[in-house]
Amino acid sequence: MNYVIAFLVGGLICAIVQIVLEKTKLMPGRVMVLLVCTGVVLSAVGLYRPFEKFAGAGARVPLLGFGHVLFDGVRKAVDKEGFLGLFKGGFEAAAVGTSAALILGYVASIITKPKEK
After folding, report:
1. Which of 18, 60, 98, 101 could form a disulfide bond with 65, CB atoms 3.0-4.6 angstroms apart?
2. Sign of CA dihedral 33, 38, 41, 42
3. Cα dist. 69→66, 87, 110 in Å?
4. CA 43/CA 51 separation, integer angstroms
5. Angle (CA) 76 80 73, round 5°
6. What is the Cα–Cα distance from 38 to 48, expressed in whole angstroms?
7. To 10 degrees, the CA torsion angle through 80, 84, 90, 94?
């Protein structure tokens, strides 16, 4: 059942984003930033953890999860190191995911031979 809930919640988030892209003049980059900021706000007000507990990977995979990871990393770094944590926390928390995306994207580009449009 966890897989079904994760699929439905993640799909619902993606469907809402697609509707926003279709019905507004917002550019995809701005919608992506909006999703990351929404994840940060949900984390800041304490709503992300219950949402994540319910939705599982459906909450973690979209960009809402990335915003949560950034916020959580900054919060922990500020608690540990003070003001300097504002600058270090997000980088340390998101480093693995960002590195994996870059490396796997590069590997995919080697395998598939992408073409210029």
Report:
1. 60
2. negative
3. 5, 14, 29
4. 10
5. 20
6. 10
7. -70
Distance CA 35, CA 13 (A): 10
Query: DSSP code of 24?
Result: S
Burial class (CB in 10 A: 0-12, 13-18, 19+), 53: exposed
Q: At what angle do helices 28-44 and 48-55 cross, to 10 degrees?
A: 110
Contact (Cβ atoms closer than 8 angstroms) between residue 87 and residue 78: no
For residue 107, name the pLDDT band (cuts at 50, 70, 90). Answer: very high
Residue entry with tokens 């944590």: 85
Nearest to 90 by CA among 70, 75, 66: 70
CA distance 66 to 49: 13
Length reported for the chain? 117
Q: What is the pLDDT of residues 4-50, one digit of tens each?
A: 999 999 999 999 999 999 999 999 999 999 999 999 999 999 999 99
Task: Tell me the one-letter amino acid at 58.
Answer: G
